[in-house]
Design a protein that fits this description.
By secondary structure, this protein is an alpha+beta fold. The protein is about 35% helix and about 15% strand. The chain contains 18 helices and 14 strands.
């Protein structure tokens, strides 16, 4: 007499996946129940469930879920006939430049033209995806960053509106690798002075200096040069040679620069996407500000607000991690670093010195002499061996000379006829009472405007410079 069929067996055979030969987890559970609870033998369970004893034994050993694995590759008669050729092409590609290697489309085109291949491009693409060896140079590793040991620096761009004019802002980006405390500064140009000033602002914001700074290979900070000697196994290797100002910056703050391999920006991945993040998060819509100082104040406030956030993969906030990292940063130098570039310039007969398409005025006594121009990110200073002889707000791009009215006063006293057309006069901003005095003198002297201008200029010794003019400088 046979055992009665338990309820767990009814309807199970229909639940078998006919396409893959696999059974569902619910069926595995019923098999195990029939064997352990209902007391059926493996042979009885196999007969009741219409399965092989091998499948029943597997169900008893593994409760699932089961994973389907193909034991042998599916036949591909069309592609198999040319697979050896395609494999040889891929192998040969490993010895040629990356930009001249076979793409899947190019392999398909050659197979059609040279071997009469009748398969589709998608067939070749699938085969190449399975058989092309991974390039280890494109594989990255997750990295750990020691506290206080590293910061990463980069530049990016964003569109802003300064005083109603759409302008491209160059964003200096710095991030401490451990705490991810950010510093962003906007500049009108991405030049050496901006790089230097950005470092000074970042170190002041952090209240210390990390041991190492990671960079691309920016031309503003140096040059990539080929080593004279070859490195075994690598051939000729390029190294980054720092400019004098960048070397002085590292010496002043006591840190070392590490430059990534060319075109390998992912090596400093902490800062690589920082520009895009801030642009999407804080610069949409396009900010409309009065000047660059207001824009930088907004960026500083938003970087500070980031301290409340908790980055992915961290259990604490940016501010909490920065509080741990800040005491371990290196000290700031006792004297401020001059974040500028220095240039020897000669004063022209118009009392002007030239720097990057713009001219700046100096006092009369320095005409024809050589002086030193210090170019900061936002200011121009002209120095002699005695001291600073002129200061101006830095101007960008071609345009009129940037002048100081008081530099030209001795010349205007001797040549009052040039008063109306003199650029220093037009750029100067006179107090209302002085402008009224000029109009009264012109009315008194009628057509003899030269006399009125001379009378006004002669009065310079009778009033302080602040009462006469606030020169644009």
């Amino acid at each position: 007499m046979t055992n009665p069929e338990p309820d767990t067996v009814r309807g199970v055979a229909a639940d078998t996946n006919r396409e893959t030969g696999m059974i569902k987890v619910a069926n595995v559970e019923r098999i195990r129940w029939a064997h352990s609870r209902d007391g059926l033998s493996i042979r009885a369970v196999a007969r009741a469930f219409h399965m092989s004893r091998k499948t029943v034994r597997r169900a008893l050993a593994d409760p699932g879920p089961w994973e389907y694995q193909r034991r042998k590759a599916a036949p591909a008669p069309v592609m198999d006939s040319v697979a050896a050729v395609a494999e040889r092409w891929l192998l040969d590609d490993e010895s040629v430049p990356r930009k001249q290697r076979h793409t899947a489309r190019r392999i398909w085109q050659r197979l059609e033209a040279e071997y009469g291949f009748e398969g589709g491009e998608s067939t070749v693409r699938q085969w190449v995806r399975r058989n092309r060896r991974a390039d280890t140079r494109s594989v990255t590793l997750p990295l750990a960053h020691d506290i206080g040991a590293e910061a990463q620096f980069d530049f990016g761009e964003a569109l802003v509106r300064i005083a109603g004019v759409e302008t491209k802002a160059h964003l200096f980006c710095a991030r401490l690798a451990y705490s991810t405390r950010d510093v962003l500064c906007a500049y009108a140009r991405e030049d050496r002075a901006a790089w230097l000033d950005g470092h000074v602002q970042a170190f002041q914001t952090w209240g210390g200096v990390p041991a190492t700074g990671w960079y691309d290979n920016p031309s503003q900070l140096g040059k990539l040069k080929v080593r004279a000697e070859e490195v075994e196994g690598q051939g000729k290797v390029k190294e980054f040679v720092r400019c004098q100002e960048f070397t002085a910056l590292q010496s002043a703050y006591g840190f070392r620069g590490h430059h990534c391999n060319p075109a390998q920006g992912h090596e400093k991945g902490r800062v690589e996407g920082l520009v895009g993040y801030f642009r999407r998060t804080y610069l949409v819509p396009v900010p409309d500000v009065a000047d660059w100082a207001e824009l930088n104040r907004i960026l500083a406030e938003r970087c500070l607000a980031e301290e409340r956030l908790r980055r992915r993969g961290h259990s604490t906030t940016v501010g909490e991690r920065f509080a741990l990292e800040q005491p371990l940063l290196g000290p700031l130098p006792p004297t401020p670093f001059l974040a500028c570039t220095r240039h020897r310039v000669r004063v022209t007969q118009q009392q002007l010195v030239t720097f990057k398409e713009r001219q700046y005025s100096v006092p009369l006594r320095w005409v024809g002499q050589w002086l030193t121009l210090r170019a900061f990110a936002w200011e121009i200073q002209v120095w002699s061996s005695v001291g600073c002889v002129a200061r101006h707000q830095r101007a960008f791009g071609p345009g009129d000379p940037v002048t100081n009215f008081w530099h030209y006063l001795p010349v205007l006293q001797r040549k009052p006829g040039a008063f109306d057309q003199a650029i220093p006069v037009r750029q100067a901003s006179f107090p209302t009472e002085v402008q009224a005095l000029l109009e009264a003198l012109e009315t008194k002297h009628g057509d003899d405007r030269r006399r009125a201008h001379r009378r006004r200029l002669d009065m310079k010794g009778q009033a302080a410079s602040s009462e006469w003019c606030t020169a644009t400088s």
